[in-house]
Records
---
Amino acid sequence: MVKFCPKCNSLMIPKNEDGKVFFVCTNVSCGFSEKPKKDDLNIKEKIESESFDVEIADSNKEALPVVKAVCRKCKNTEAYFWTVQTRSADEAETKFYRCTKCKHTWREYD
Ligand SMILES: [Zn+2]
Ligand SMILES: [Zn+2]
């Protein structure tokens, strides 16, 4: 991908800083840099949190704490419990339960 500076039309080169890639103008006297768009970052975070969610639900359930919760399917009173930060850090995390008996999984919103 080749990009040109919108200010001086010099070639822009990708630069990696703190794990974020953005483009910087090669003309030192210009110094223009293009920060990554906020929307792109949000999409990336969303994908990562969703895959993380699935990973915990499918492989790590043995290590999860067991709490008192009534399963709607089999009326069992114990379930594995974990939380997932779904979207931005501003939002409350989502609570997940998985029945220890029938493996029914559900989420709880406050
Ligand atoms: Zn420039
Ligand atoms: Zn159950």
---
Amino acid sequence: MGVKKIRCSFCGKEEKDVRKLVFRKDTPNEGVCICDECTMKCMGMLMQEESAKAAAEKETTVSAADMRPSRIKKFLDEHIIGQDRAKVAMSVAIYNHYKRIENIHLDASDDVQLTKGNILMMGPTGCGKTLIAQSIAKLLNVPFTVADATTLTEAGYVGEDVENIIKNLWIASGKNIERTSKGIVCIDEIDKIATRGDKGRDVGGEGVQQALLKMIESGSVTFTPDSAKNRPQQDLIQVDTTNILFIFSGAFNNIGSIVQNRIGVSGLGFHSDPVAKKTDNDVELRRQVETIDVIKFGLIPEFMGRIPVIVTLDELDEDALLDIMWKPKNSILRQYERLFDIDHVKLTVTEDARRAIVKEAIRRKSGARGLRSIFEEVMLDVMYEVPSMENVQEVTIDEGVVLKQHDPALTFYKHAS
Ligand SMILES: Nc1ncnc2c1ncn2[C@@H]1O[C@H](COP(=O)(O)OP(=O)(O)OP(=O)(O)O)[C@@H](O)[C@H]1O
Ligand SMILES: [Mg+2]
């Protein structure tokens, strides 16, 4: 019987062919071992993984030294498709806000105080307003909360008090008052508390605006840390809202006609453009919205006085919706592919099918939000059936499936006989 040759357990090379073989401690000179070459390879793999991880982390934050509007825009580009004008405007607004929160302690003795630039985002449903606000909070690494203006009530009425918004922000901050005071609050559906707008809510709308005013105007908000009422005074939490950034958003349907009236009547507005006089294009008109138009729409002047930045978002077009469907890391299509993948089934959605889904989303006027509900409808039956079928290899969704003309095509694994 010959002497057993000892080889690297990974590459199989013999001891004589490598510089060193490292053995497992408990089995010296036999059993499991690794050679110097494989050790180096493993090191390389580990380092590659580490640097990939570091790069991924870098992708979701921007270092303080690197914080510039162009860098913020690049970050937004990674998350939001289209909406270029809005992303540029937001990048500048956020850059200014960042400078402000970073210099809070420095400018105490300075004559020039940087005032807060709360933002109003205007755009149709499902076009990315909340997504932009969410992405910015991620970028700045500050707590973030979303509230719905329609559920808010004046103090003393049944409904949600505005103080609850700050309480939610405090919870999102990990109950850290210091972090809460630099957070971002997004208040959706702000157009629905307009006082005189076409479709606005009249009753109570102004009351809620007044209540919000107190909160956004630098002041402090006090709330009880839990839902238990009648807690002793010392249990109350107080948050200074001076540096909390408020981002309001809403669809502001028909505001274009208010702009049209202003431009048509005076034509002397600071930003007015004679060409715009002729256009009845709503997109163009919306882009020219000024504070005065929003006040006409029904937000009170004192409230608008605290929101110096107005950003308009456009309706997403066919190409943008198509990109949204599959390009982002967490896109709807990738999510479905993953769901099928878990069952070892390949999901194919043809180009025609994607276009048909986009067309339906446009018809429903629900922006990118519509993509998910249409997908849900298209996929429901097949998602019900496939898990209880055997050997399904691939599911193909084509235009006919989306148009409900036929069922998805299935292919099956062939059994080796
Ligand atoms: N521009 C976009 N780029 C990428 N994804 C988008 C974009 N717009 C919308 N989406 C997708 O649609 C979803 C809904 O968008 P979002 O919540 O931002 O809409 P919204 O403008 O706030 O609408 P609403 O007025 O109804 O609140 C997002 O979670 C995202 O998946
Ligand atoms: Mg929203």
---
Amino acid sequence: MAIKQEDIEYIREQLSKSVNPLFLFDDDADGLCSFLLLYRYVREGHGVFIKTSPELSEMYLEKVNEYSPDLIVILDKPQVSQVFLDKLKIPVIWIDHHVPVKRHNVKYFNPRLNDDLDNRPTTYWCYKIVQQDLWIATTGCIADWHIPDFVTDFMKEYPDLLPKKYDDPAKVLFETRIGELYQLFNFILKGKTSEVKAAIKILTRINDPYEILDKTSSQGKYLYKKYSKSKKEYEQLLSEVMPTDDKVLVYEYSADRTSYTAELSNELLYKYPTKMLIICREKSGEMRCSLRSKNMDVASKLKGALIDVRGYGGGHLHACGACIKKPDFPKFVENMKELVKNSK
Ligand SMILES: [Mn+2]
């Protein structure tokens, strides 16, 4: 089970030995927290967040040349190009928790290699390595909807940020102050690259969460202000969602507002747990949809709703994607309403 203790110690040793590590991390809150934990431990090197998703591609060789690191640490990226790895002439460590892949010329650590059900976030393993900055570790874990086993330590140290033990990660995300910290980490990753970089740099120097949440330092205040700006935009989008009595909730947004899709579907799912959510935008004459439901079998209903409709789609039990020709979209929604109505 898990990433083995000897592997955790190996990574810690490599980090301690490195004088100029380069961290390449996913541009979400789990990736960011993983980087912050490791960087704040070694206090050396550089961090670069990876925008190409899901793969870390050869295009980042440029960054490697720019920083001449003696160690590369890849965090929370599901895919890394083999060509990229082959061209690196220095040790590479890759920690991830997505579906395991096979690559050469890299030390690859993934809890799912030993137990496919163990998909604890990258942040969780980074905390095992550094054993410090509990508040960043907890934030990164709940960002990936995981309540870590060290949450009781966190509650002891920060009772006002997490006053009781929750079983449901969604409640932690939307009802607590540590949830607000997650929102902040998430939102400051959006926007102009130069601003995101500046915000991350500040985060490497923040001493405690109250600097941000209670604005007790000028740096914390700056981060909170940046966050409030994105938050306002987001709240605007959220306020446009008009639920009806119908169990199918359709929300259409314009293409230039793509950056909040994941956040919107998560929060709508939390607010409307009994509904089937269809979040979509139009592109090239098609409706690109993300379908989510907390309780309903989305995959099988999607299959049914696609009958006599020009389109395709598929995915998981509670989350799917679909693409529907625009003229057929009303029919698709109608089919879905019928299926949902008949299900219970
Ligand atoms: Mn992750």
---
Amino acid sequence: MNEPNVPPTVSTGSTTEDPTPGLTRRGFLRGAAVAGAGLAAVTVAACAPGTSAGWTYPPGGASPRPSGEPATASPTPAPTASPAGPTPMPSDQGGGQHDDQAEAVVKRFLDGEWQSVGPSGNEPLAPTIDGDWKVFEMDCSPFDWKIDAVKPPVKAVGFNKTWPGPLLRVVEGDKVRATFRNDLDESTGIHFHGQEVPNAMDGVPFVTQKPIMPGESFTYEFVAKPSGSHMYHSHHNATDQVGRGLLGAFIVDPKDPTKRYDSLYGATQDIVWISNDALGGFTINGRGFPATKPIVAQKGETIVIRFMNEGVMMHPWHLHGMAMRIVARDGYPLGSAAFTCDTLGVNPGERWDAVIECRNPGAWAFHCHILPHAEGPAGMFGMVTALVVQD
Ligand SMILES: [Cu+2]
């Protein structure tokens, strides 16, 4: 059942075994241009600083070598350097086939594969209003879901046929009525993870309710509290059902507007990042690299990322180039215990809110640092995306 994107083999490390260490091919790309994805051309920066050989990507592509820069940064003639840019290192010149594969998969990412794969999850679902209730109506149903553009679709289950399901957003104190119609061929039950609901609304079959049988509906009613980053997901046969996508984000904004992230931190983007690690391998918001969506910000912009782990193992999220300020755990503000880091471990069931000041221009890898979840002999896969900071 657990089929990672590629076998969990540790990378042989093309970035560290560069036979020409005087070159700048440390890190994963340099001087790249992002095509598609609605992104302007940006520089893709390596994780290690160094002199730039001014690579362009794709070779001969849109991002010209800065004038005056030598084609190589090393006095040693380099087999990889050419006036055309980052020519893949052919096998007979020591690079090996993994370089070609690694470059090809990054190109798919830079070409905006996430846009062509199909509908995205986490789309906001506006409630209908019934008196003082905010009403959400969803189905639980099976569907085919593409993890990326190449792999065959997986047999997913989810809310309203996306993985993650719709993003539900309310304000602390709102009366919430959420009805789930079960269109699966098995029973289910839905739990609002992190909410202080009445016991009968907790969604655990045989503990607080009968299972929702195929063809039936069940309505959960509660007052939204506490505020913060929460989730809703199956709590029945959950290893399989949540592992296949029956999950979504439930955001409760603080009643006091001055406590919200746009007011507190001037955040202009509020990004939900739900990881999973079962069906479809290692995914971010239901997609594996190179079909993960890049985060694009302007230099000086402040963004918020809400990490949520719906998988069965911990994932340490590592951002290159900038630090993250961690301001809340499981929806609870950390206050004076807020801390700064560049790698944040997120355990199953946890939510952590990170504030990032996008002050360092470039395209920065942003990935799980359990390396078998992110990079293998055929390049990067799975839990990888990029934070693109445009100057
Ligand atoms: Cu991981």
